[in-house]
Target: 2-dehydro-3-deoxyphosphooctonate aldolase
Amino acid sequence: MKKEKSQLAVKDFYIGQKDLVIMSGPCVIESEEHTLKAAETLQKIFEPFKSVKLIFKSSYDKANRTSVHSFRGPGLEEGLRILQKVREQTGLAVVTDIHSAEEAIAASQVCEIIQIPAFLCRQTDLIIAAGKTGAIVNVKKGQFMAPWDMKNVVEKIHSTGNHQVILTDRGASFGYNNLVSDMRAIPIMQQFGVPVCFDATHSVQLPGGQGSVSGGQREFIPVLAKAAVAAGVDCLFIESHPDPKHAKSDAATVMDFKELPKLLRLLESLYQLMRQDLDE
Model:
């Protein structure tokens, strides 16, 4: 039986249609200058790929850092001001994390997509508040959640009258300080009638693996991204940075800007092949 394809409009393109949509950018807003330059550079990197669409991602606050001493970002008000500037100067759609009902309202006025972090995917009040904004809501599947249990999250958002939902897989806990990606999660969650995204960068994390910070295995990002596209995923989440070694968040797992073009060429071809197969 042919699977009913989920589609979700973002600006002038659709998630789950002919174009491969990728959410990408530095994990956290490091400064206004750094963020604007990163967005402009990514836009140029993505430009040659006609069937690959970029949604810029960066967070104003990383509230779930391993250590109290870790950099969290500029905060809600300043961070949203910077993201608004990104939208105005580049025309890109933007996604950012939220952590409370109040943040959901504020972020939805700036960003096309508001994102629920994996650790908060069961927080009903936050999920409902996000749904009520009318914005697209991207929910990261918790490392502790089975993919079939995410149906309850979708139903919470739908209860608000908002049917603009994306579910993102980012691996599952596998013992201590490790994650494993089960590609069965992609078709399982697609059965809920929503687009499914795969987070290829957080999936290679080693949570808390370096004591006060999380470790990671950046070399496996391309492997998992290609596997997810081959499994029929609707979009990808790939955090990236111009200088990963000095990134202020997730330095071990963000992808280097210089490595993106090669990967994008492979992913674009593979995605088109998979879409053709699904359409037959």
User: Anything to note?
Assistant: The chain has a mean pLDDT of 93. The longest strand covers residues 52-57.
